[in-house]
Design brief:
It comes from Rubellimicrobium mesophilum DSM 19309. GO terms for molecular function: methyltransferase activity. The protein has 63 residues and is mainly alpha-helical. The protein has helices at residues 3-16, 25-35; strands at 51-53, 59-61. It has two helices and two strands. It is elongated.
């Protein structure tokens, strides 16, 4: 079996164990890119969602 297939299988096992979707989203994305052979999401040229600031200084996440 190819190395990519083995990495993807390992990623699937990792993803099955996730409990907090919002809290683990960035790590999930990083590991997904690693499964496809990149060092991480940044090295692949991807960006993650950015936090937005509401009027009054409170932070709000973009959905």
């Amino acid at each position: 079996m190819s190395e990519v297939v083995e990495r993807l299988k390992a990623f699937v096992e990792y993803a099955k164990a996730l409990k907090d979707e919002k809290g683990e989203a960035q790590v999930f994305c990083d590991r997904l890119f690693q499964a496809f052979g990149h060092k991480g999401y940044k090295e692949a040229g991807a960006t993650l969602e950015a936090r937005q600031t509401k009027a009054g200084g409170q932070r709000q996440e973009v959905r």
